[in-house]
From TrEMBL, chains A, B:
InterPro entries: ADH-like_C, ADH_N_2, ER, GroES-like_sf, MDR_fam, NAD(P)-bd_dom_sf. This is NADP-dependent oxidoreductase. PANTHER family: PROSTAGLANDIN REDUCTASE, PROSTAGLANDIN REDUCTASE 1. The keyword Lyase does not apply. The keyword Oxidoreductase applies. Residues 16-326 form the Enoyl reductase (ER) domain. SUPFAM superfamilies: GroES-like, NAD(P)-binding Rossmann-fold domains. Keywords: Oxidoreductase. The lineage of its organism: Bacteria, Pseudomonadati, Pseudomonadota, Alphaproteobacteria, Sphingomonadales.
């Protein structure tokens, strides 16, 4: 019997395991044009928190008592569709479960570029492309810039650090705790800020005494305010996420936002979805950066479908270094 | 004896008349290349509040016990410089005083375009150009957009309303009190919000039920948060000022800033100074809008040099409709 995680209640603040239930699901009989997939890897991502609220955002909310979904890598076990054969590795969006029957158009075959399959949920997948286009397009970062990136040990942040270094930028990354800061430095960052050790603003002043040209925001809150305070003339901020606010209904407080005027800061929200038409460009450039060893994939793996909610909740307590994945 | 207003102490929060003193000043003997000017009109502007703090911003702070300066229109009384003769009307930056001796290069002759001289401190001056380039360049506003502008009865805001209407946009302006809202509507705004009558967000929802494409911010605080809450896809925000924060050391609170991501909002700080190289374009277009009656100048006038601090303080209590000026 196949199984899938269901959302059984909407979290008010930080979700708990009570919000989720693993239930048997009936797989439909395979019909023409369809493929039966067994999942190998599931992605859990901070943006999924937004889908647990009732209100519609850029992506519809999860429905109560329905299976959840998200990025996944699977292996074809049976196919009644042209172009797919048993053993093929595919990426698709029916995660949070162990098996799925899907129309062929919902699947993308993973290209054989010498990368591990799970890399397509990490630096060669949505987090990597988010980092790539957020940094180079939304923030218009270029060689010589000083880039500040928050959650630099996370899936997106760790890709931002590596891409920025590969492109000739100076990078300051923030992360929680000594070990993660060590990891951020190992990615090539010029400096790492431990946001648990003291106020972000003071640390950023020390790490980038001449200020910052680019801020890649995954966090919001104190980090964003510190970036306002330290922005140089014509700085560009790309807003990717604000994990500090996902589980809170309190307003965020900014003491330095007014500096946006004097420093002519441009701040822009963006989504991965805005760039899917440019993925070829990403695969080409990122493939080369990986082939030359300038960018590597880093993952934290939870084993077993049963662990999917723990992996997801771990995103909010900082349990992951690099991309958080579930191995089914 | 010439007189000038001096800053005698730095205000902590809202300035008071105690922070200023009107003192005699010694005018230097007129030398070759210099012009003696008698001021007719002085400008007082919200940005001057920032110059009363000690910290350096995009413009140096006022010095304690030194004459203040700012935009002014004067008449030449004596000239030892080529190109200037008694009776010429000139604009310059030695305001907050009745007379000044200045090098010729500090003066600009007012062109004879049929406008009253004080218009060059208003819609044909810095506030008008700020409105023009902020709306059309920083916010990239275009025909068909729904534009929200705060402090819409003020010098910059009232110009934004008129330019936006002349360019085919739908305009919602906010102002404090019934009378000012009436004024905003008289400028052509499709709707006016009285921010003193209730929460800005609820009023904006009523006034622009489909949301806003552009926000021209003069205020920050609740207004900016309401704009975040009501931003449509790809909305553009131009940050011109945040008067709500000028006299406060408290952080500003934003509940809806996270919507910048889902709505891909671009927010940009800008200054008048960024556009001085494009003033020709402004004079051409704005001159035509004025000639055809689409844009008019509106001023609130305080009479007498003695009243300059009162006029300035009035900016923070909403004493002005249109541009606040001092007639010397």
């Amino acid at each position: 019997m196949a199984r899938a995680w269901h959302l059984v209640s909407r979290p008010e603040a930080l979700p708990t395991s009570d919000n989720f239930a693993l239930r048997d699901i009936e797989l439909p009989k395979l019909e023409d044009g369809q493929v039966h997939v067994r999942n190998l890897w599931l992605s859990v991502d901070p943006y999924m928190r937004g889908r647990m609220n009732e209100s519609r955002s850029y992506i519809p909310p999860f429905q109560i008592d329905e299976p959840m979904d998200g990025g996944a890598i699977g292996e074809v076990v049976e196919s009644r569709a042209d172009g797919f054969a048993p053993g093929d590795l595919v990426s698709h969006f029916s995660g949070w479960r162990d098996e799925a029957v899907l129309p062929a158009k919902a699947l993308t075959k993973i290209p054989d570029v010498g990368a591990k399959p799970e890399t397509f949920l990490s630096v060669l997948g949505m987090p990597g492309a988010t980092a790539y286009f957020g940094l180079l397009d939304a923030a218009q970062a270029k060689a010589g810039d000083t880039v500040f990136v928050s959650a630099a040990a996370g899936a997106v942040g760790s890709a931002v650090v590596q891409i920025a270094k590969a492109k000739g930028m100076t990078v300051v990354g923030s992360a929680g705790g000594k070990e993660k800061c060590e990891f951020v430095r190992s990615l090539g960052a010029d400096a790492a800020i431990d946001y648990r050790a003291g106020p972000v603003l003071a640390s950023l002043r020390d790490a980038a005494p001449d200020g910052i040209d680019v801020y890649f925001d995954n966090v919001g809150g104190d980090h964003l305010d510190a970036a306002f305070a330290r922005a140089r003339l014509n700085a560009r901020f790309a807003l990717c996420g604000m994990i500090a606010g996902y589980n809170s209904r309190e307003p965020q407080q900014f003491r330095y936002i007014i500096r946006m005027i004097a420093m002519r800061v441009t701040m822009r929200g963006f989504l991965y979805g805005d760039y899917v038409s440019r993925l070829d460009e990403f695969y080409r450039d990122m493939g080369e950066l990986m082939a030359t060893g300038k960018v590597r994939s880093h993952e934290t793996v939870f084993d077993g479908l049963e662990k999917a909610p723990d992996a997801f909740l771990g995103l909010f307590s900082g349990a992951n270094t690099g991309k958080m994945l579930v191995r089914v």
